[in-house]
Amino acid sequence: MSSIPYDTLRPKLTDQRILLVGGAGFIGHNLALELARMGATVGICDNLMVNSLIENCYDPKRTGVQRVAYQNFLLDRFLMLRESGVELMNCDARLLADLGRVFESFQPTKVVQMAAIASAVDAKAEPGLAFDLQLITLRNVLELVRPKVKDINQVMFMSSSTVYGDFEGDSVDETTFPRPEGIYANAKFMGERLVRTYRTQYGLGTTVIRPSALYGERCISRRVSQIFIENALTGKPLLLEGGGDGRLDFTYINDLVQGMVRALALHRGHDDSSTFNITFGNARTIADLAAVVKSVVPETILEERPRAVDKPIRGTLSIDRAREKLGFEPTWTLETGYKQYCEWYAEQWRRAQHQVEAN
């Protein structure tokens, strides 16, 4: 499978109508842009509620340059989507009737379910909202697909590496039994189970994607990769718990999107049900992440802190299955992908500073 060049997948996508539910977010808009480039007809339905322009404008924790920078990221998403011909439909997928109207008008052949709260911290703070955005929307997607399995050949579910819980060894693969902890991880695992149940009982073609420690342009979810570069640019210290020896399988958004596009293009239809780790496939330390930041912002301050007792033990996610079945091969190392992202972020921060000063 690895001998299949990426761009030769285009003919498998040009006749597909792919609907991204909750697709205006960080992962979704990047996936939509790439699918459109590959020739698919792409639609996004999103209630524009999580990490939205309005939330950014009114959030008292965001002021000055940060607020303007995040506003730019969000506006750039919409401009890029419009220029790429992606249809954006304002829809609350928690409402079956609302989502049903989108299905009727767009007539998808594939559906990617990615509606969710963006972080485990936010899910813990608002568990009811986390369940609504993750599981009610998924129920509605599955119920709308169920009577149309002849027309909709694939449901892709965006899960998370957090379903594995604490790693017992250095790495996990898709056969490792999940041991999720917390609201966010358990909602993701419940979603996986629900998708597989609809697969066995109603004949849906399904794909589950498990990403890890994402970073990339136009993200405002405040993952550690974003917090580090932003802190460096604002003179705040980068806190290294336990000396920064915690390990994560950091993955550049371009690699994740490449893997997801492959999984959509190479799906074999209703008889195909697969789960894939789509990551870089090599865990790195938090100290490694900080070193890249310091290479871009030399004055970066590093401070060690005691290790938090409730932090999960993570490591590498094996991508052997994705390599074998999808020809997936990530290309962006921390030193190339994360450095490029940090340089981009520094430029965007300067852009926002100039805008604030001009006002």
Automatic annotation (TrEMBL):
One Pfam family linked to the record: Epimerase
Domain NAD-dependent epimerase/dehydratase as annotated: residue spans: 18-278
SUPFAM superfamilies in the cross-refs: NAD(P)-binding Rossmann-fold domains
InterPro entries, A to Z: Epimerase_deHydtase (IPR001509), NAD(P)-bd_dom_sf (IPR036291)
Pathway: Bacterial outer membrane biogenesis; LPS O-antigen biosynthesis
Gene3D superfamilies from the UniProt entry: NAD(P)-binding Rossmann-like Domain
Family: Belongs to the NAD(P)-dependent epimerase/dehydratase family.
Listed name of the protein: NAD(P)-dependent oxidoreductase
